[in-house]
């Protein structure tokens, strides 16, 4: 009977510890991980994205149209990223005659616009117009005029280098950053644009500038055109008494002043550091594009930038920019303003024109090299050219997709390497939604729906970022395996040892064998 | 006698030879760095008054990078104890690099981002990988991108393969290498210069496997990093040898100076340091003798002159949306303290 009770006790220990306890312990210490689409994430490598773009060739006769269309098609055949869907047709008789008779190219553009929808993103028209001074003419609208079939090579060159900028779009997905990517801001949900008017000597000079309205009118009108891409927040501020020593040297010249102050280019980056101390642009969560207008004090005016070869820079404005940071304009007062009323009224039009030029590059609009035989109408307003916006959409879509894919792949690799990273439901949802968005954006790109593709790729990018940067990923990282054993062994070993040993006795007892050998003597 | 690190020589010291591998000669155009900004992460991991010298170490580097142009917003300073205000400090609000009080490395303004018990392995790895809690202020984040050069300086007590944080936890060289790999995968840096002053310091960078990292350490595996000298007025060792000579070197570097990284590696010969300075350059693509020191210690940023301003002919006028300017609150006045108007009416 005692034997029976002892075995019962032993069996209940085994039952609690091994049959209930072990699975319970296993279950409760499991690292929680939502199942993730690893195969999809790993297959991103081979997935190369192509963007389909619409191109319409309109010519006076059938042979010219097909000749040009064929040449363009051939030129874009080996492009890995942009696939053109080329339509060719003959100009209707009425449009043909109007195009040949109107005096001005801009009127011609209006005529084309009345027949075709030029406001559609991702479309472009190559139209023949006989009375043209150049081979090819290009302005801000999604139209390019050409004279005759002899201009075909210029057309192809312009499409490759200016309209579609193949090298820049390809550079957006490349492993290492190309020049354009080194300058433009990385993708994000939105940007703050902060105009800081720097006024080092408020006691000596009065600066009359309505910074708030200037940024609103000029920069505001510019960013309104890019509202399909980003949310912008515009701010302006004044920074007084920011002393920066340019270490400029006075040089006599023939100007109204009789001298100018030369500042070397390699000194300018220190101004950025000085500005950063004061601009306080770190208050917001979003990245900030800094625009700084430095009102040069009268005793240092005019300040002229000298390049690394010690030559005066040839530019109507003294200005510079720093990649991924922003731009600075040095505003020199005129001798009259310094002498008489001591009120400096900076020329808003020129200053803002410079800021816009800098902003374009910082946001990713690159100016292409001029092409022989092509007349590109210079910008005369703050608005970017329509086809520049289309191309920016292509660049940014590619960049965001590539970034999202790399982030997810990096995360997948990390999860494989380190086993005790928790993936909770939220992170899992972000990853799944990012994967879905990547695939949808890729499909939309192939279909040529550029704006939708951009929005989807932005979602993919933001979701992937959230998933990778989720703080909970590090939750269990500092409880490595060796420390687990340090806890479990002293806790469980003394209990488990007798329990495991008693298993043998239990088994023997079940089989009805004697447990203790009776002493023979 | 020199104050050596606490002995962590539990593990066998590997007496393997330390090999340096020199990459192929790279064309001249690749020698220029294409970074667009500079960041510094400076960490002192040890507490308590007898570790005064570690605070002096980290502040020496802080002082130098700040002087060479990295703004405070791009320096993450982690100090686990406050020596300047320690009650045992006979000269409050100062930390010197020398018993003769040559340089007060505490300076006028020190912006400490992580202090006291905030200096933990978890926070350090969170900082590097960017996985900070969402309510972390921007000044406590490492907001680097693919164009950032980062200087990482660590000081404290280390052993073979680990660095101790706060007497309670350690970061292992593998954890650190993994964190850096995550940074590389996430494109959080262009190049990293990793600088460490602890015992057996070189063990911390041996596990690195991510590209574009240049690393140097105050001592090889099996060696102690030693302190420079004691200040009998405060009763503790005041600075470590390696950082003492580094500071001496950096004091003579100016923002536009052309000193190179290979000069930096030679700052502390064995006769001065007693320990051997270790260098690892196989992950780094450029030739250190052509890399200016300001690529990591300063903030020399690329400047592009704008020569093509847009000549705006149409003056734009933006349609004003609903005014969202902050309303200036009407000024209110206090009522007179004594109700004179009541008095006047009764008269």
Automatic annotation (TrEMBL), chain A:
The keyword Glycoprotein applies. Pfam families: PIG-S. It is found in: Endoplasmic reticulum membrane. One of its GO terms (biological process) is attachment of GPI anchor to protein. The keyword Ribosomal protein does not apply. It is a multi-pass membrane protein. Belongs to the PIGS family. This is GPI transamidase component PIG-S. It comes from Arctia plantaginis.
UniProtKB/TrEMBL annotation, chain B:
Keywords: GPI-anchor biosynthesis, Signal. Pathway: Glycolipid biosynthesis; glycosylphosphatidylinositol-anchor biosynthesis. One of its GO terms (cellular component) is GPI-anchor transamidase complex. The keyword Signal applies. GO terms for biological process: attachment of GPI anchor to protein; GPI anchor biosynthetic process; proteolysis. Pfam families: Peptidase_C13. The keyword Zinc-finger does not apply. Residues 1-23 form the signal peptide. GO terms for molecular function: GPI-anchor transamidase activity. This is GPI-anchor transamidase. It comes from Arctia plantaginis (Wood tiger moth). The lineage of its organism: Eukaryota, Metazoa, Ecdysozoa, Arthropoda, Hexapoda.
